[in-house]
Write a structure and sequence with these properties.
Blueprint: H1 2-19, E1 27-34, E2 37-44, E3 50-53, E4 69-73, E5 76-77, E6 95-98, E7 103-109, E8 120-126, E9 129-130, E10 133-135, E11 150-151, E12 157-161
Antiparallel strand pairs: 1-2, 2-7, 3-6, 3-10, 4-5, 4-8, 8-12, 9-11
Amino acid sequence: MKTVATLVLGLLMTACSHAVPSGALPIGCGFAVEPPMAVVTLTNHGDRDLWLLRWNTPFERQPWFGRWLDVERDGRALDWRGPMVKRGDPAPADYLRLAPGESRSARADLSLVYALDQPGRYRAVPRLNLLDWGQGDLPWPRTRADFVATPLPCAAVDFDWR
């Protein structure tokens, strides 16, 4: 019985070692606004492939399927006019692969989800939260219950709109 328990424990540890990311997320985030476009650039600073769930990021098929950015005009928050999407479990295609050293950029039109109809000083604040990610070989997709969520800090940007 002890041998069976040891074998089962060993198999569980092996299965989990592929499903849980090791260490901190080795990624850099760049953010820029070229009105009305917001541009997010992610760079893998690690030595293994990174797999990032695209949901609620501009890397999704439709970049505004989830709110990943707040916008203010003259210090006042603008209302979000975009959709919120309810989802099941992800498919492998829902993950973005970044090879070591690779950078990828995504562009999204701010005017589709925020009222940029008045001149003023605007501030765009990314609120990126990777709902799931991993390194190495792709053992995904995981179920939502097994996601490893991680905030992804990106600096805010001020811009003028006339």
